[in-house]
Amino acid sequence: MSWTHLRFGVFGFRALEEKWMDKRQIDALRLLLQRKLRDATGKRAELWTHVEPNVPVTKRTEKRMGGGKSPIKGWKGRVKQGQILFEWAAPVQIPVEEIQSKCSVRLRSVVDPVYQLQSIQRNWSL
C-alpha cells in the first residue's frame, strides 16, 4: 500500500526525497512527535507511523565467497518520495523546522483537505 495521502489523521509529514532511514532515526522522530503532541494537548494523542525498519543491514566483510551471511548490524526502512511518514489526529500543527534536525529526509507538512475546508468555513461563520 502506498502512503501518499493522509488516511487516519488530520496533520502529517510527507517525504520530499527518497532515502533510507535507520531504526534509531525513526524511533527518535516518533518520540519527539509524541512529546510535542503531549505538550501541546496535555494528553496522549494518536500518532501513526508509516515507515517500518524492515530491511536488515549486515556488515560487509572482505572475505572470499562461501563464508555465509555476516551478522545483522541494524535495521533500515525505505522512504519513497511523496510518502507520508507520520500522521496524527490531534488538532495541533507542528512546524517542520522543529522536526527536520532529527530527520535525514527533507519533509513537508501536510493537512487533510477536509479539515482545512471545515476550519475555513468555521472562520467565515464567525
Automatic annotation (TrEMBL):
Name this protein carries in UniProt: Ribosomal protein L16
Domain of life (superkingdom): Eukaryota
Record-level GO BP terms: mitochondrial translation
One Pfam entry name: Ribosomal_L16
One GO MF term: structural constituent of ribosome
GO cellular component: mitochondrial large ribosomal subunit
Similarity comment: Belongs to the universal ribosomal protein uL16 family.
